[in-house]
Amino acid sequence: MKVSFIGLGVMGMGMALNLSKGEGEGHYEFIACDPNEQALEQFKNKGLKTTTNILDTTDSDYIFLCLPNLDIVKTVVLGENGLLKHLKPGQSIVDFSTISYLGAMEIAEACKADGIEFLDCPISGQQSKSLDGTLSLMCGGSEDIFNTIKPLLDRMGSQVIYMGNNGAGQLTKMINNCALNICVASFSELLPVGVKLGLDPEKLGDVLMTATGSSFASKALIPKILEGNFEHGFSLGRAYKDMESMYEVLIKSEIPLPTLSGTMQSYQLALQSGHRDDYKHAMVKFYEDMLDVRVRKEGF
């Protein structure tokens, strides 16, 4: 069996390194692919096969992708020099990229017409989890293929869940991301209000990280707000695109979600204020400016 991995970025690098361990154990042949030669060095140093040309992966039984956005996934899979033109029935593409539900459905239908299985398996977790193989994977597509490749997926994630037919993985990821974005918007709006009315920002932050209003988002991001750390990890602009993708589905299905709609407006305010490339919790800066306060602990 031969497997390949295309896309060795922030998340893909760790995932591919964990997947490549199967070759060393004699389970399958492995090839790493990325247009950036520097990204391939770790694999070359391990004696693994590498390439900068995606067409060198087309003899693989399973081709794994971890790419930045829908346009790039479409180019790699469906483009003029894409994978699909060179694959044969029975091969499978497994996409870890975060793309839209409708986009995943479009790609899956095109692949299925040529006898190729396409599984959408978006991931959740930070870079450290990609390196230690403890990501969460939400998979949509053929259940038979999922069961076949689950041992491969288990090398990259500690929580690997089959969610249903094509698109189910991306829909699950979209819902998760929207829930996270709603949490971020809530404390980004409320923290400056508390400070404006005289509360100590660090003490208020401690409460929102530990009391009934706490969440994964508050525990992960309020410390960064208190220290003024808004470095780009998952930008506010990209977070907004996740909600756009969800909104497309809601419009098509005629489903109203007022809380999500309100959250999108909060993100729009922050985007219009020039915070597109900051991490998503930078929306607090819009409300800080509006109320003329700073949510920072002493010394920051």
TrEMBL record:
Keywords: NAD, Oxidoreductase. GO terms for biological process: organic acid catabolic process. PROSITE patterns: 3_HYDROXYISOBUT_DH. InterPro entries: 3-OH-isobutyrate_DH-rel_CS (IPR002204), 6-PGluconate_DH-like_C_sf (IPR008927), 6PGD_dom2 (IPR013328), 6PGDH_NADP-bd (IPR006115), HIBADH-like_NADP-bd (IPR029154), HIBADH-related (IPR015815), NAD(P)-bd_dom_sf (IPR036291). Transmembrane segments: none annotated. The active site is at 173. GO terms for molecular function: NAD binding; NADP binding; oxidoreductase activity. It comes from the Bacteria. Gene3D superfamilies: N-(1-d-carboxylethyl)-l-norvaline Dehydrogenase, domain 2 (1.10.1040.10), NAD(P)-binding Rossmann-like Domain (3.40.50.720). Residues 2-164 form the 6-phosphogluconate dehydrogenase NADP-binding domain. Its EC number is 1.1.-.-. Residues 167-287 form the 3-hydroxyisobutyrate dehydrogenase-like NAD-binding domain. Belongs to the HIBADH-related family. PANTHER family: 3-HYDROXYISOBUTYRATE DEHYDROGENASE-LIKE 1, MITOCHONDRIAL-RELATED. This is NAD(P)-dependent oxidoreductase. It comes from Sporosarcina thermotolerans.
